[in-house]
Amino acid sequence: MSRTVAIVEDEPDLRTNYLEALRRYGYEAVGFADRESATQAFALRLPDLVIIDVGLGDEVEGGFELCRHLRARSAGLPILFLTARDSDLDVISGLRLGADDYLSKSISLPQLTARVAALFRRLEALREPVKKESVISLRALRLELERMRVTWNAEEVPLTLTEFWMVHALVRHPGHVRSRDQLMREAEVVVDDATITSHIKRIRRKFEALDDKFDEIDTVHGAGYRWRP
Question: Where does the record place the OmpR/PhoB-type domain (predicted)?
Fold first, then answer.
């Protein structure tokens, strides 16, 4: 059975491009130009995944409002922001509202469809019974690759997909410096250096929220980041 992906994007050409790309990959894709039409349609039936722009027509933060509404209806619905607004404040706002990831519109269509597929894989893995899988254990950290799940002192760290793959890149070879370009490739995103820095800051904050003594991620100035050996 094909999965339904909804796109809420007010720019017609972009919306059409996204819809065509998703349909080529076998998804049933539906598009909406504004929050109101999307909300009315979702009241009848929720899609399997939603991609939302932050600014929707005259509503500067219409996407945030839609995300809040959808998350209140379903805790498990995958929600992905795809927007030109990628300031640290906007990203944090989107993630605090419960989005699974926040990507820049500079991402390519193949990268977007790969991210959608990864969100579905994570959803399926979390629904499956625990089975033997690839696990990285390092001090208080446990990373379960197939379930795309990270825990610290047995408490789950609420990472987005982008953040998960960045942590994976660091812990796979502890002590080895990973450049910003390497982190981008691992996370399948194309962003500027400042956005990578923002991702690392948010990753640190999420671990620190569970353990105020967390200090596993080192910044190697001019080179990148590493997980403490």
Answer: 133-229
The answer to whether 56 touches 81, Cβ cutoff 8 Å, is no
Strand partners, 136: 143
* d(C-alpha 68, C-alpha 70), whole Å: 6
**Residue at which a domain ends, from 103, 126, 149:** 126
Model confidence pLDDT, tens digit, residues 49-63 = 999 998 898 898 899
User: Does the reported pTM lie above 0.85?
Assistant: no
Of 73, 97, 126, the domain-final residue: 126
Q: Is 3 left (phi over 0), alpha (psi -120 to 50) or beta?
A: beta
Using DSSP's 3-state secondary structure scheme, residue 203 falls into: helix
Residue-wise pLDDT for 3-39, tens only, equals 999 999 999 999 999 999 999 999 999 999 999 999 9
Which CATH number fits the domain that encloses residue 216? Answer: 1.10.10.10
